[in-house]
Amino acid sequence: MKKCLFILAVMGLVGFSSNAQQVEFEQFDLDNGMHVILHQDNTAPVVTVSVMYHVGAKDENPERTGFAHFFEHLLFEGTKNIGRGEWFTIVSSNGGTNNANTTDDRTYYYEVFPSNNVELGLWMESERLMHPIINQIGVDTQNEVVKEEKRLRVDNSPYGKFLENIKLNMFEKHPYKGTTIGKMEHLDAATLEEFQAFYEKYYVPNNAVLVVAGDINKSEVKKMVKDYFGPIPRGADIVRSFPKEDPITEPMTATAYDSNIQIPAIMAAYRTPSFKDRDAYVLAMISSYLSGGKSSKLYKKIVDEKKMALQVGALDFSQEDYGTYILYGLPLGDTKLEDLVTEIDEEIVKLQTELISERDYEKLQNVFENQFVNSNSSVTGIANSLARYYMLYGDVNLINNEIDIYRSITRAEIQEVANKYLNPNQRLLLEYLPEDKQEN
């Protein structure tokens, strides 16, 4: 009886997610090329104003890395009408919060306000585009901020440089071989004119999408958007032509050292397609199957049962142009790194030669249904999704139907994709070791 009740509850949840997750939106373009998306939800008196720029670390001069992340900080310095250091004070004193983040592919800024301050949010984001002050004082100040962030998050963080070392070895031609935070010596060497030129090229309305989501009146907000953003001049068209990587056809090996760790790690990295590719969705499911929690295949076998590792897992680091799929393990006791690789490979071979069970397949479907519900459970999350699906996927309606892609993936397709990408001759094996293991 309890089992029947549980099944009915799950079915009810799935039915709820199918119907309740429909996100209504309106979109249009300004004459200057800025794309605008409005989502009205009057259930709570909150509004999110956000702008995503199609600029990230991959757009940088390889001798001037870190610019996109640097501007994530610099564009809070102030504008012609917002005094230096006053941005956060204005936001907090009006009941709001704000933040920004940068990847290799895009930069995202947003404010969350009580809905009666939607115009304030629009004005502030338009100021960032129309009247920024990019001077030497701001550059010097934010340079120190970025250096401190790098020290905390990368240099002094255990395993903080593992992704940097994987990317460096996985990509020879494409700018994904760099890091989002960049090299500090590049920022030190950059001139004020170089920063200003980077801003003028990428922070233009025709390289951005504006999303206003929450407790709004769409007709009123539409007029505000046109008033605040319409006068901003269009920038020059941005043409991207990144070099393609040659396929990996032979095993690669590398070693990296970290002074912040005592336990070594082994990482097997595979180059995978863009997150827009259907195979990327299948790989996301494989990642969940292998390492989604303590009942997952890798954890249960290698950590729980065989007690060979402190931690194992799969990371599906998916990006706009390529993805990097990473399997990793931290050994327990005297376990050798190569023995961890053997155990991990056994699970991959099972994926390649056997269909996963119906029960595991249903569990995966439930996991992704739940993720779908959670991603659109807040106005802030919806704003982010609307911007991302437009800017990086070219299909805003994925906010409503992306879950259908996961629902359509079959067990046979999971097997097929594992065979297509997760082979020993298509990977990098990176030994990530304590620095005291480095030979002098």
From TrEMBL:
Segments traversing the membrane: none
Alphabetical GO biological process terms: proteolysis
Domain annotation Peptidase M16 C-terminal: ranges: 190-366
Domain Peptidase M16 N-terminal: 36-181
InterPro entries: Metalloenz_LuxS/M16, Pept_M16_N, Peptidase_M16, Peptidase_M16_C
Signal peptide: 1-20
MF term (GO), any: metallopeptidase activity
Keywords: Hydrolase, Metalloprotease, Protease, Signal, Zinc
Family per record: Belongs to the peptidase M16 family.
Entries under PANTHER family matching the protein: NARDILYSIN, PROTEIN YHJJ
The protein's name in its UniProt record: Insulinase family protein
Organism from which the protein derives: Subsaximicrobium wynnwilliamsii
